[in-house]
Amino acid sequence: MRKPYVILVGSASGIGKSTISAELAKKLEIKHLLESDFIREIVRGIIGKEYAPALHKSSFDAFTVLRNKNNFDNKIDLINAGFVEHSSFVIPAIEKVISRAISDYDDVIIEGVHLVPGLINIEQFKNDASIHFFVLSSDEENHKERFVKRAMQIHRGGKQLEYFAENRIIHDFLIDKAHENGIRVVNTQSVDGTVQNMLTSITETCATIMLKNTVDELSDVVDIIINKHGGIIEDVTYLLPGFKEPLKRKVGASDPDKTRKFIESLENKPKIKKDFKYLYNLSNNIRGNKICASDEKTLENIIKDLDEKGYLYKDKTNESKQKT
To answer: Mean pLDDT of all residues in the chain?
Structure first.
């Protein structure tokens, strides 16, 4: 029997976490979807403004009521300190909700700005739950567009629009904390693409396959796996002549923007491309690849498309696909 899902989706305001979390809940048929803002309101009813003024402000302007504002050398550190102070009152209640969901064997998705990597202790739940923590990111232009749209939809445009810069600082802070704590950062694009990316991590439907392609054909391979099917290239293994052990590289490639920039760098930086060609030639352009997808059908379609393009390497001793 599998462990209950505990899925945490954090981001700054205006990134799209509510829409994405709702779609994720639908895909996984999870009925319990909670916003950390609701949990915050309950905590506010217990802890008064005089005891926790930061709690009774928004995440992006909590810094305005800090008692030690003069101790900060710059506004970025001040904004982040206010945000952490604000979130610190909410996180213990979030952890209680998670504990209750696990004890009732209920799957739950919790989304909100208060899910700060390093502050919320997810290690305590890992033995009893299948826990997945994501922080959503967006470039500044898309973030501002979504932020304005959201602010107008919830009829709080006046206040929220004044604080986009503060929300952007919180966005960067959450991304930094995610990297520091090994939490998966997912760049938001289309809702379907983002959800597909997250499902790939959650379901862990993977296979190790052998591919044969040149460096010039790499963009096509990446396009099939990541762009077309929302898959992840977890790692790559090179079988090099003269080496007892294969050369294995952890890749974790899933972000279309990052992979596109990497492919472009091969074209724009001849030395890097030359080094890659040398490595590919040593291994006769053959590599082992651990590929993950959102479900079994998608994984099969990835392998089918690679095979149709002639990239799937087959020989008499290798069946090419090994479930992991």
So the answer is: 89
Q: Using 50, 70 and 90 to split pLDDT, how confident is the model at 138?
A: very high
The answer to whether residue 322 scores a pLDDT higher than 50 is no
Q: What does the pLDDT read at residue 108?
A: 97
Contact 83, 54 (CB under 8 A): no
Report whether 213 contacts 306 (CB < 8 A): no
Q: Which two tokens stand for residue 1?
A: 């029997």
Compute how many other C-beta atoms are within 10 angstroms of the C-beta atom of residue 123.
Answer: 8
**What is the C-alpha separation between 148 and 118, in angstroms, rounded?**
29
3-state secondary structure the chain: CCCCEEEEEECCCCCCHHHHHHHHHHHHCCCEEEEHHHHHHHHHHHCCCCCCCCCCCCCCCHHHHCCCHHHCCCHHHHHHHHHHHHHHHHHHHHHHHHHHHHHCCCCEEEEECCCCECCECCHHHCCCCEEEEEEEECCHHHHHHHHHHHHHHCCCHHHHHCCHHHHHHHHHHHHHHHHHCCCEEEECCCHHHHHHHHHHHHHCEEEEEEEECCHHHHHHHHHHHHHHCCCEEEEEEECCCCCCCCEEEEEEECCHHHHHHHHHHHHHCHHHHHHHHHHHHHCCCEEEEEEEECCHHHHHHHHHHHHHCCCECCECCECCCEEC
The pair of three-digit structure tokens given for residue 155, joined into one six-digit string: 């009829």
Residue 151 pLDDT grade (very low, low, confident, very high; cuts 50, 70, 90): low
| pLDDT above 50 (res 318) | no
Q: Checking DSSP bridges between strand 184-187 and strand 130-137, what pairing results, if any?
A: parallel
Which pLDDT value is given to residue 245?
83
Spacing of C-alpha 304 from chain mean position: 27
Give residue-wise pLDDT tens across range 190-242. Answer: 888 889 889 988 987 899 999 999 999 999 999 999 988 888 898 999 888 87
